[in-house]
Amino acid sequence: MDRLKQKVAIVTGAAMGMGKATAELFAEEGAKVIVADFNAEEGLKVVEQIKANGGEATFCKVDISNAKQVEEMVQFTVDTYGRLDCAVNNAALKPDNNSFEDLDEEYYDRLQAVDLKGTALCMKYELRQFMAQGNGGSIVNISSINAFKPTIGNPAYQAFKHGVEGLTKAAAFEYGVKGVRINSVAPGAIRTPMLTAALKDKGLTEEDIIPQMSLIGRLGEVKEIAQGTLFLSSDDASYVHGTVLHVGGGFELI
Questions:
Q1: Is-catalytic flag, 184?
Q2: Active site residue 161
Q3: Residues 72-93: what's their mean pLDDT?
Q4: Which of 27, 117, 163, 242: disulfide with 50, CB 3.0–4.6 Å?
């Protein structure tokens, strides 16, 4: 416990799924958490639950594809808690559900704006704040197993998750010497609302995908992603930089 005691953390996409679990675990570990999400109704519920459990959190509504809103999110964090120590860039849209020849251009553009550009914008303003403070920080980007292993029917999502890994490496190469640790977590098949929606789109069930997506024989749980993210954000990972932590039951080996 207290691995993030008195640290200030931003978690984007924190209204549900992996982001919600991460925000709750960070608060349990002593962080003051900015629960950042476009969904105000669900985001405020997360804040209420964290407070009910004795933690500290504040909601910030943000569309990470909008640079002004991202800049305001970081400034809101500093105005609220005085600083920023760690950030988890988790917000993303569900995968597309088209083959290449049926690529949905409108959804492609929206995915790019949130999953790739949105992550880049978050990093931009988080890094600016870390540089202004002058005493380092930590960024964890949530990518996907699809950044390393292709699956059928979601070419846009796979492309942009590759891009998230590229952003992570590029920033790590530049900012490690400046005191900012930057890593990523690549979830495999995790039981989330996003996965449920994606399976529904494809007409599949959990039982259909487990043999192809896990060497452990089950789906992962959202708290298992949160635990990996906590490790990378904490001082336990003080010499871990520019790397990816696979949390996917060995899916990358299949």
A1: no
A2: yes
A3: 98
A4: 27
